[in-house]
Write a structure and sequence with these properties.
Helices cover 32% and strands 23% of the residues. By secondary structure, it is of the alpha/beta class. The strands form three sheets. It has a seven-stranded mixed β-sheet, with helices on both faces. Helix 1 links the parallel strand 2 and strand 3. The N and C termini lie far apart (32 Å).
């Protein structure tokens, strides 16, 4: 399932057309392709937005990969679905004429974990990502090469769904692969707070500069 028609999605062209940087929006459990559009517009004004709907249904709630229980991910399913999302992104790049070299992800919860999986298993698809309430989702068989990739992890100290140890494990794994990782802890739980948005907006404004030379 890699063609655009296989993925319900929204595309919002950026202010500068094909030269605009692009943000891949990946929703949390129960969201859909419209869920993060307003947040993307707020945090990355002027950028193009690509927002697909997750292909998994958990009791009617869309997700990007299956889980065995709350906090227990189906790693085999992650490994199967990451290439499908990567193929969708490449297809969208050709159709909507944006460069992968200027593509950042903005993910929340399940979407953040999918974005992290994309970097760990399909390095090169994303230039970077903002991961909100993410944990280490899958152990790569081989360490990816992520030099030139920038990541902001925005975590809640009181979030029961994202234990600090698993969030730190993700930051360490991405750093070990060569990514430039910023880990910010908020005095918050699972829900986003103003600090998450302020940090993400400032971080993206420094990096959404279009394709690399």
């Amino acid at each position: 399932m890699s063609l655009l028609r296989d993925w319900p999605h929204e595309w919002v062209p950026g202010a500068s057309g094909a030269s605009s940087p692009t943000v891949l929006l990946l929703h949390g459990t129960g969201g859909d392709e419209s869920d993060l559009i307003s947040l993307g517009t707020e945090l990355a004004p002027g950028a193009s937005l690509l927002s697909p709907r997750g292909q998994v249904s958990e009791r009617g709630m869309p997700r990007f990969f299956r889980r065995l229980a709350d906090g227990a991910f189906d790693e085999a399913d992650i490994r199967a679905r990451v290439p499908q999302l990567a193929a969708f992104v490449r297809s969208a790049s050709a159709t909507y004429r944006f460069a992968l070299e200027s593509l950042f992800a903005l993910g929340y919860s399940n979407g953040a974990n999918m974005a992290a999986s994309l970097m760990l298993l399909e390095p090169g698809v994303l230039r970077g990502a903002v991961l909100m309430r993410a944990v280490m989702p899958v152990e790569p068989i081989q360490r990816p090469v992520l030099e030139g990739t920038a990541v902001l992890i925005s975590a809640g100290r009181l979030d029961p769904s994202s234990p600090a140890m698993r969030t730190q494990r993700l930051a360490d794994a991405l750093s070990a692969a060569g990514a430039e990782v910023t880990l910010r802890w908020q005095s918050a739980g699972y829900e986003l707070v103003p600090g998450d948005l302020e940090d993400a907006r400032a971080w993206l404004s420094q990096r959404l500069t279009g394709p690399r030379a």
